[in-house]
């Protein structure tokens, strides 16, 4: 589909009324409450009958498995607080705008996921030497790019056997809600959301490279539809702030009292811990370091809190920005670099603020 | 703001990425799971410190009250399953399109609300004779129509003393989530969503007509911005179906096997019980009655389930519609009647379906 220079189309609106971002004031919570966490659902949310549900593990394994939810729950449990972000976050800010779910910057959230380490299940299935990829299939079904499919993604075997990938059956201490993949989903901390396959029904080990739609056609950085491109994998660094003061209903412009505001937000990266968050009050011309919350985040994959006391020089119009840098040296750009799928636009957040006399 | 004949504006998109509808496949649940229920938040979701929170009841009462959450919970509790719908549902289908939250038809959901009957608290406060209105103030604050405000709405005293209005502190058996009004919200079954004031902090009885923004300027049926109009109150009837078959990701067009499909959905009205749901497979030219679920809904204010076995005459393109009629004789129109705020557009749902050979 051709990218669009004009305003939002009816197809994009249909997606935007179904899928939703995290309202940015919810960045105040270290763990995002259920219902505030962003959602991107490719097809429909399936209704799953738990008693008859099984997770099938097969392909190049010596001991194929068929596990009920109770059997999965009987295996050793692990938890991870992980920040998820949709690969398409920032898409609707690109010019021209690739046509798909039209995210601005709010497609992020952090969950406390609990389940069984993926490695535990793969070891139980006795993966054969020479297995290269692990293919995960969800129960959700639809058409995409003209191809009928169940949602299906592969991970390289090394990522799947790494220590953090999880078959999760709980979110924030409760069974998964339907929209987050009940009864079981894959969680791959540090990767963009497309890796976290929901409503899992099957895991297949394969010795051949996997060529399915969601790996080979979708979720690639391409300069054009003809470019084979490279896969979208880990989350690029991003900082977001809670928009300060109070909003205008329609424009979402913020109104802040002349005394200023304590800015607060979160920052994350799939490539390394956050080592710097900076704030600009002049649209990115000059920057000042924010304070990272004392102590690291509880977990490597959880976003890092930050604060910044902003004292505006006077009443007037400001453009607040924030940006993050991770330990691998990746820093958010001021301007987006364009790609045909509209992925990973982590250009800095810009918040329009009016500073005025009074209580704000 | 002028209505818009073109595509969705950036202001509307900002609202659509924050607020979200119920994905229509979730009409399968008689009680909408938290996180799937629609949300419309005027300003920001406030963070409420429960220990210091109080509900103040004052104005024309003989015994002003200041109640903690524990004190409210100690009063006799009641529950009601109530279907909520945003007054702006259907707005983005109007031509020209009034500019605000751009709902299609998904701004609906049903919750199991539990709390204290509003009447119980008003009786405890000893409302004075001559009180005409009850004014409810939330903790959320912002600008709207150029006016700074906390969200505030009034109800006529008779509605407030009626048997179903509730001060709710639980949704679906759990404390209210932040986005649904923690710690306490008003629930006015049968009325559009704007009546259900969230994050309640004060209730004031008044002997004078209330003239605040959300009653006098917003939420009125007006032919133009100059028309004083009439208030938006109860929910007009509507039926929605779960879109059958499987979707295309981008267009949401549905694909159904040639054998047909069992259509299912829900219908509701704030004016009376649903007494008829009809289905059309030809865009509304001809209609056939659906089956209402055996027995009424558990509660007067809960949507009513319905089913219809659809046997298409052959492969091809169809436009499925459904419409409801309530016991007061109100029936959904084929075409919307326009108003400047874009309220209560309950024209029939239209679902584009391709019937094809194979399993669908």
Tell me about this structure.
Two copies of one chain form a homodimer. With 360 residues, chain A is mainly beta. Chain A folds into two domains: 10-231, Oxidoreductase, molybdopterin-binding domain (Sulfite Oxidase, Chain A, domain 2, Alpha-Beta Complex); 238-356, Immunoglobulin-like (Sandwich), CATH 2.60.40.650. Chain A is 9% helix and 35% strand. The first copy, chain A, has helices at 10-18, 69-73, 118-125, 157-161, 213-216; strands spanning 55-59, 65-67, 78-85, 108-117, 133-144, 147-156, 166-171, 174-175, 185-187, 200-206, 220-221, 230-231, 238-241, 246-247, 254-257, 261-268, 274-280, 288-289, 291-292, 304-310, 316-326, 349-356. In chain A, strands 14-15-22-21-17-18 form a six-stranded mixed beta sheet, with no helix packed on it. A five-stranded mixed beta sheet of chain A has the order 2-1-10-5-6. In chain A, strands 3, 4, 7, 8 and 9 form a five-stranded antiparallel beta sheet that branches. Chain A is globular and about 70 Å long. The mean pLDDT of chain A is 95. Chains A and B meet through helix 1, strand 5 and strand 14 of A and helix 1, strand 5 and strand 14 of B.
